[in-house]
Amino acid sequence: MGKFLALDMGAESGRLVAVEISGGITTKELFRFPTPVLTDEKGRRCWDFQSIKRSVIEALKIAATEGPFLSIGVDTWGLDFGLLDKSRKLIGNPVSHRDHRTDGYLDIAAKKVGLNRLHKETGSQLLEINSIYQLLAIKEKTPEDFTNAEYMLMMPDLVLFELTGEIGTEYTIATTTGIYDVFNKNWNFALANDLEIPTNIFGKVEDAGTERGLLKDELVNETGLNKIKCIASASHDTASAVVATPFEEPGSAFISSGTWSLLGIELKKFIANDLTLSYRLTNEGGYEGTNRLLRNVMGLWLIQEVRRDLASQQINLTYAELVDLAKQESDQWRTLIYVDAPIFVHAGEMIARIKKFANETRQAIPETPGQLAQTIFASLALQYALTCDVLEKLSGMPMNTINIVGGGSQNEHLSQLTSNISGKKVSAGPVEATAMGNAIVQAISLGEIANLESGRNLIRNSNLEIKHYHPMEVNSLTEIRNRYEKLTKVDMR
Predict the structure, then answer these.
(1) Neighbours of 235 (CB within 10 A)
(2) Which of 28, 74, 320, 493 has a CA 20 to 30 Å removed from the CA of 215?
(3) Is residue 342 reached through a cis peptide bond, with omega within 30 degrees of 0 on the bond before it?
(4) How far apart are CA 63 and CA 58, in angstroms?
């Protein structure tokens, strides 16, 4: 088979991973770099794309010493995009979904076209940070950004453009926007028109695995890397992670656990109805035409922000230390927060926000780092369990196992809490599912692997470290779950 490069970019950091596929699959992280944000001249929280570009070039220089490679694929988080003008120059830095510019725009869109239409004509979860509301905010607040805009490129497509000079939009990332119709597999131009969003910026959508082009000559010369093929892999990071999830049986759930926790099931059909609307589920395209019916759960963003807050107080704790402190809390379900409440979306003062939520819902205020961390982990486990119940109902299949992949799969405490509160087996790993899935799609595209199932069999047969957790008894389980479910009705901002 051969060696592949997976450029995997998250909202906290990116890395370039070498993936070798032979009789099994192995990974080697070559370079890790921050994905920094900055404040632009309009006061918006943006991705520092020039810094990201420089880091990618440095990563490719290192890769040149490890090659040759057959191809490279790019995956990133969803939602965010850059606008290019007619000369294909980037119009400012891509704005982060954590910026406040979308505040209130879901309500504005709903008044214009209705919640039902926003969900049922696209299959999308109604999140105020979705691309559709970012576009609506541009129209209302900075319409000059649209004046010269010719192309909208999602983050992985923007990086591929820098690598190849070629324009394109990959399917799995397009389905995260909230303006792509998963049922008819096209942009919802009628919805865009009714919201007065320009439609010229929406390009042709390509299947995952499409060859986007070759690495530009100037980058070959600058980095020393061979002139490799650049593949539009399953470029939403969760889509790549699901490719490499070794499901034990149909109906099993997945959690791609990182800054966000994307929790769902893989189906062959798309579902948008009153139940998916009320439980904030989304339909996102997967590889080989599958559907990732899932919910975007706030995820490890909460503990990342708490850790940042503590550091500002000169309390420097690693993630592992915060997990250990959480485990030491005697009352694991003492304080709970609704993890997806709007109050927790934006950056800054996360500890104060958690305390405010606890206070206004008449719970004990978490004060110590251990109490704060345990509040987050317990609440995440409960949200996972509640979402699994709904997904099981929608699929009509028993859900015996939850598969946690990605960096969050290393949190043994959260995995055990999830098993305990859901009553389901939890299988944690592989940690490198996203990079592996990215590479598997590349290998299928180049004819090195037959299909998706062959790729998953490769994962299953690679002796990867996958840990299994089984439910342990929880006292007052029903009371705890009922208490959390009541908190999900609290719409605190």
Answers:
(1) 33
(2) 28
(3) no
(4) 9
The answer, yes or no, to whether residue 491 has pLDDT greater than 90, is: no
The Cβ-side half-sphere exposure at 69, using a 13 Å CA radius, reads: 34
Give this prediction's pTM.
0.92
Domains of the chain, first to last: 2-237 (3.30.420.40), 245-431+463-493 (3.30.420.40)
Question: Confidence band (pLDDT; 50, 70, 90) for 464?
Answer: confident
Q: Which residue from 38, 400, 411 is spatially nearest to 258, judged by alpha carbons?
A: 411
Cα–Cα distance for residue pair 291/182, rounded to 1 Å: 9
Q: Which residues of 222-233 are buried (b: 16+ CB within 10 A; e: fewer)?
A: ebebeebbbbbb
Distances in whole angstroms, Cα of residue 297 to Cα of each of 55, 70, 249, 321, 341:
29, 35, 23, 23, 10
Q: Rounded to an integer, what distance in angstroms lies between the CA atom of residue 61 and that of residue 33?
A: 14
Check residue 173 and give its pLDDT: 98
CB 260 within 8 Å of CB 102: no
DSSP state of 76: B
Decide: 221 and 234 in contact? Cβ < 8 Å: no
Active site residues per annotation: 237
Decide: helix, strand or coil at residue 313.
coil
The sign of the dihedral angle between the CA atoms of 413, 416, 422, 424 is positive
CA angle 45, 50, 53 (to 5 degrees): 120
The C-alpha angle with vertex 158 and arms to 154 and 164, in degrees rounded to 5, equals 140
